[in-house]
Amino acid sequence: MSVLTTKEIMEIIPHRQPFLLIDTIEELEYGKRAVGKKCVTYNEPFFAGHFPAEPVMPGVLIIEALAQVGAVAILGLPENKGKIAYFAAVNNAKFKGKVVPGDVLMLETEITKCKGPIGVGMAKATVNGKLVCQAELTFAIGQ
């Protein structure tokens, strides 16, 4: 059973369709870590151009989905309610496999550092337990 539904996620982060890239939050420790799920379907708008004959989820959108999961963990803290988490850096991103329609993308982001409005999260995405992406994400919390 999910910890947060799509509606509850939208109460925490400002993203909306078609750019909300997580369906549910499965595990959550506010300020520390979150695990989200994205059920990838043929109906995703990016598949129309990436690539029509062989649909593959763009890596940059996997990174964005990981950041959204991390944003739920950080922005769910009472002191961050109503704020936005912006990208400050993406480091050491590695893509280990394709994400295609029908995949269930599991997205885990652990907040490893937070000082003032700046923080760092270690993020990884898996499909069927297989690592497809990992990265270090730096964020800045703004108004």
Mean pLDDT: 97
Strand-residue fraction?
35-45%
Structural class: alpha+beta
Q: CATH homologous superfamily - what is it?
A: Hotdog Thioesterase
First and last CA, distance: 32 Å
Q: In DSSP terms, counting alpha (H) and pi (I) runs of 4 or more, how many helices?
A: 2
Biggest sheet character: 6 strands, antiparallel
Shape: globular
The CATH architecture comes to Roll
How do the strands of the widest beta sheet line up side by side? Answer: 1-2-4-5-6-3
Please name the CATH topology. Thiol Ester Dehydrase, Chain A
Total E-strand runs: 6
Q: Spans with pLDDT under 50 lasting ≥5 residues?
A: none
Radius of gyration: 14 Å
Structure characterization notes:
By secondary structure, this protein is of the alpha+beta class. The protein has one domain (6-142): Roll (Thiol Ester Dehydrase, Chain A). It contains two helices and six strands. It has helices spanning 6-10, 59-75; strands at 24-29, 33-39, 84-95, 104-115, 118-127, 130-142. Strands 1-2-4-5-6-3 form a six-stranded antiparallel beta sheet, covered by helices on one side. The termini are far apart.
